[in-house]
């Protein structure tokens, strides 16, 4: 078992502590939180060991799980990597692309592994259909959330939209050609609602909308590709897969047939992939343990987390 420690015992940090404690692939050593009152409360309530300094925690573990505010990601990760520790780091990987690139350089130098917490890669609705995603040419995403003061210290692009940026970059195997975006600050000092259009060199276009001032929650992505429409509801953990194939010469009574202007007939059929319930955060943590143990590539690498951040900043800079 890998000895693990958590930096940050806020809302998400406590979830990570609980799951690492449950996991059979980790031995949870403890945590560090700079707010002493919070650290004491978490230690007393859950029984996890609280360390007095970041350095003491890092020295005691094999894997450092960084669940601190984004502004401190780089300093925490740098210190862990330089002591030869593997790092799991919440999204966004760092505040700036330059910081992220430095972490990649350090991780390579010290021969440690890193994974970024883009948890939607482990959403069962997405994993159920990702093998069916084949060169989508138009993608539309909506990630809408009710207002929550937690997280408003960063633009909605880094808070919410970056989830969809990462998903899109994992599916579209092409470089970004251009970005057009707009954002509006309604309640916060940074944009609360944003829309971005990303064009890729292969012709794919992605249209992303993110809001943290909506009246209801929605996390839905629609993929359009040759002979298929695939929808992923990340919130409800549901999928919708509609495909087309050449129509049979003699259609059945219940076959759905479409004919285009050129007279080509297509049969429409529906697929219902199995969406298996899971705990996506536990899955991302445990697959990272597997990558360390088996010396394989993590599912969401530091490089991929950096690319998502790079595109996010392209969007922010276009406001």
UniProtKB/TrEMBL annotation:
Protein name: Predicted dehydrogenase
Annotated ranges, domain GFO/IDH/MocA-like oxidoreductase: 156-216
Matching Pfam families: GFO_IDH_MocA (PF01408), GFO_IDH_MocA_C3 (PF22725)
GO MF, one example: nucleotide binding
Organism: Lutibacter flavus
InterPro entries: Gfo/Idh/MocA-like_OxRdtase_N (IPR000683), Gfo/Idh/MocA_Oxidoreductases (IPR051450), GFO_IDH_MocA-like_dom (IPR055170), NAD(P)-bd_dom_sf (IPR036291)
Residues forming coiled coils: none
Domain Gfo/Idh/MocA-like oxidoreductase N-terminal: 3-118
